[in-house]
Amino acid sequence: MAEKISAGEKVVPPVLAGDGGAARLLAQVLPEEKIDSLIQEAKSSGTPLDGVDGLLNHMTRAVLERVLDVEMTEHLGYETGDPAGRGTGNSRNGKNTKTVSTHNGPVEISVPRDRQGSFEPRIVPKRKRRTGSIEEMILSLYSRGMTTRDIEAHLKEVYGVSASRELISKVTDVVEDEIRQWQSRPLDEVYPILYVDGIRIKVRDNGIVSTKVAYLAIGVDTDGFKHALGCWIADSEAARFWQKVVTDLRNRGVRDILIACCDGLTGLPDAIRSVFPDTTVQTCVVHVLRNAIRFVSHDDRKRVAAAMRRIYTAPNLEGAELALKEFRKQFGDKYPGAVDVWELAWEEFIPFLDYPAELRKVVYTTNMIESINFQLRKITKNRGHFPDNDAAMKLFYLGLRNISSWRGGTSGTATPGWKIALNTLARTFPGRLKF
After folding, report:
1. 292 and 385 share a domain?
2. Are 231 and 145 in the same domain?
3. Domain membership of residue 171 as a residue range
4. 216 vs 369: CA distance, rounded Å
5. Are residues 337 and 160 in contact, defined by beta-carbon separation less than 8 angstroms?
6. pLDDT averaged over every residue in the chain
7. Where is this region: Disordered (predicted)?
């Protein structure tokens, strides 16, 4: 509430309902000894400090009712019993009882009425039975992977608040406009590095539950900070889908990407080159290693890993080709699948060999984006499937917003060793960086 509250001759600071707002208010206007007395009386009577029947709940009720009385005075223009109110055409007309849900539990309050019915409370608006803190709590719990059923049970058990699953769903729907703004916000003109990776989810589509993939794009800006540029759920064949994604980045202001790092996503390299013809598409080396090692028995994995290391640490293309030839000679008969993985990924792997060591460390892997996907998988694992794409996008967005330091992609996290990599990028791609 932005307005000051008059209480006799005192001016009380603005009140924030819930989250201890009542306690903060009383701490400002009551002497410390009075607060100590209230706490001592609560302890003596066995009254808890928080919870449904706690002291904070009682204080919240007192503050809310006081604010409502002050709001009514402001609405009418005169205090209770003031002769100035005679003949004004409107007056107080008793009170209604209303239960509102707060952070400390349900609170039953008395809401004043006026005869004309024109009073519109601001602290607890008409037809509203929740303070803002409950909605924030629901969003917080939802973004951490709790289902609507879990949140309903948690609020009832811990806070004594009855919130139906339909209500919880409506509360989480408030981010839909925020998601649309995030998906269409302007982007930087140049991203030195773009990472793309996906996470599999189950979505009900036309009555049938099918497996889809939500793809996340992370851009590293010229200052070395990583930003979630967008999240897209594939709902069409690969080439058409990736063309849509890349065109979306272009329409939002991206004019150049120096290196795009991804993991064998069919159709993505061609889509990137069609819109950003100068971009170098680099496969994730770690993904190649993982895919190849799947074909290898446990007893041979150390030897195979050592042989593959000679490929991706080679000083140049010629050295890598010799290492691959030796790898094929040594393990081709026993593990042809591992050799095939390298040969199929070769064209998107070899750009990596042209980079100096400082730049190789930055583009070596999409592990950075996979760490984000790991956290997103944690919040999706409790759901058998999503009812539609919008429901999945809502959870992904809230999850991204909740990841430390990301704030929904509006601020990023730094890239280790970026200054050295930036100088290497400037030499490797002359004239293309924009500051």
Report:
1. yes
2. no
3. 139-179
4. 8
5. no
6. 79
7. 77-113
